[in-house]
């Protein structure tokens, strides 16, 4: 028997609790983070199993421990390969087949199950709900399924002092059902968003800048050159807040008169204006947002979550990462992972599997104008305006390694 519930998955008595995880040993957000905080020993065992290659789609990790007068059973059920990637319906299906057999062997039990992959994984709840009912609906056990709102809020309860601090700083807390919640995130991410600044800025023409984790000087110079050509008062530049790439991008965009949207990995209450930006900072042209808990320090899963939000919010994504292997997961599940049209900087030595992922995403390489030598962003601006590429775009030379005319990239 299946019944549906809302609230904290740990408040409901259960013999078996299902936790949705990835296969690389990270529990950084949502339900998984709540499980990690509650059962730290379980997390250590799970991370070790991932490192050994023992956790795969359709092959969950099971942890059991006697706790007072009961046995706690946690099933870490993978819905994605990597924490940076969206969840996969195929993985949910494999997990449910395994789970059915596991439950049947346990006899009369009560199972607490989250909305598999529908929190930060971005899957459609109605589709997953049907999958759960088809796989488990006829079992003679009690299965409590917690709806997506419970997954989104897992571990996000705020104390009175935090709420007061948010109010004092003028920070808005937006949940998926609230007015003002970004429309482009609905159905892709149900994350609670904390925002300071102009909410309306999230609805204008927007370019997300996606750099690598450890950018070279060449990459930094290239992406700043591109932003310098793109940034103007009618364009929003969506970026992070790292020192090497993001802050030079923010400075350039503000100097050019653009509105900047900063998507933090950390909690918004940890944000402060860095010294290298104070002379160009303009409160009227900066919006800061975070999907982390307000006082959350940096954590591994946060970077992937921030990237997913950027790719959902933006009209266009400028990828400067020379080895964006993480894009392959979005290529398999584009409808939930990527809204933006992708443009990328090709450094000439890109691996074939990455090229294939970019082709699946209909990504386009950027080029330089023959006349000026500057990055030619006409197609990017055309994409922002939702029009066909302008005629002058034909004057640019695409950055493809095989080009005989001009092999220069935006970074050259």
From TrEMBL:
Biased composition regions of type Basic and acidic residues, renumbered to the chain: 401-412
Pfam families attached to this UniProt entry: DNA_processg_A, Macro
Catalytic activity as recorded in UniProt: an N-(ADP-alpha-D-ribosyl)-thymidine in DNA + H2O = a thymidine in DNA + ADP-D-ribose
Family matches, as CDD domains: Macro_Poa1p-like (cd02901)
Signal peptide: none
Macro domain sequence ranges: 1-162
Region of interest called Disordered, as start-end residue ranges on this chain: 385-412
A biological process term (GO) from this entry: peptidyl-glutamate ADP-deribosylation
SMART domains: A1pp
Classification via InterPro entries: ADP-ribose_metab_enzymes, DrpA_SLOG, Macro_dom, Macro_dom-like
Name under which the protein is recorded: Macro domain-containing protein
């Amino acid at each position: 028997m299946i019944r549906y519930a809302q609230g904290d998955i740990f408040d409901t008595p259960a013999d078996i609790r299902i936790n949705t995880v990835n296969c690389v040993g990270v529990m950084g957000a949502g339900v998984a983070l709540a499980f990690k905080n509650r059962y730290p020993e379980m997390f250590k065992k799970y991370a070790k199993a991932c490192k050994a290659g023992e956790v795969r789609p359709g092959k969950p990790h099971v942890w059991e421990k006697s706790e007072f007068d009961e046995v706690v059973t946690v099933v870490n059920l993978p819905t994605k390969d990597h924490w940076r990637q969206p969840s996969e319906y195929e993985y949910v299906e494999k997990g449910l087949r395994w789970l059915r057999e596991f439950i049947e062997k346990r006899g009369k039990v009560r199972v607490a199950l989250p909305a598999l992959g529908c929190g930060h994984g971005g899957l459609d709840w109605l589709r997953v709900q049907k999958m759960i009912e088809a796989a488990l609906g006829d079992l003679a056990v009690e299965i409590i399924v917690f709806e997506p709102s419970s997954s989104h809020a897992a571990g996000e309860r705020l104390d009175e002092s935090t709420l007061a601090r948010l109010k004092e700083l003028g920070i808005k807390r937006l949940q998926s059902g609230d007015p003002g919640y970004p429309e482009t995130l609905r159905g892709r991410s149900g994350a609670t968003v904390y925002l300071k600044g102009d909410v309306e800025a999230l609805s204008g023409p927007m370019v997300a800048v996606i750099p690598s984790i450890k950018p070279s000087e060449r990459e930094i110079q290239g992406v700043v050159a591109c932003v310098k050509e793109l940034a103007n008062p009618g364009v929003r530049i969506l970026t992070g807040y790292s020192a090497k790439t993001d802050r030079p991008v923010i400075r350039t965009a503000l100097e050019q008169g653009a509105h900047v949207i900063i998507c933090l990995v950390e909690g918004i209450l940890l944000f402060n204006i860095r010294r290298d930006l104070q002379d160009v900072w303009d409160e009227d042209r900066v919006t800061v947002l975070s999907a982390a808990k307000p006082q959350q320090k940096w954590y591994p899963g946060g970077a992937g979550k921030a990237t997913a939000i950027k790719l959902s919010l933006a009209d266009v994504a400028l990828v400067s990462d020379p080895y964006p292997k993480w894009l392959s997961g979005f290529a398999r599940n584009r409808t939930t992972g990527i809204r933006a049209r992708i443009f990328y900087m090709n450094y000439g030595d890109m691996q074939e599997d990455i090229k294939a992922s970019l082709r699946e995403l209909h990504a386009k390489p950027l080029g330089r104008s023959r006349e000026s030598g500057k990055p030619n962003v006409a197609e990017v601006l055309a994409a922002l305006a939702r029009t066909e590429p302008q005629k002058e775009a034909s004057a640019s030379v695409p950055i493809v390694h095989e080009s005989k005319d001009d092999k220069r990239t935006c970074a050259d």
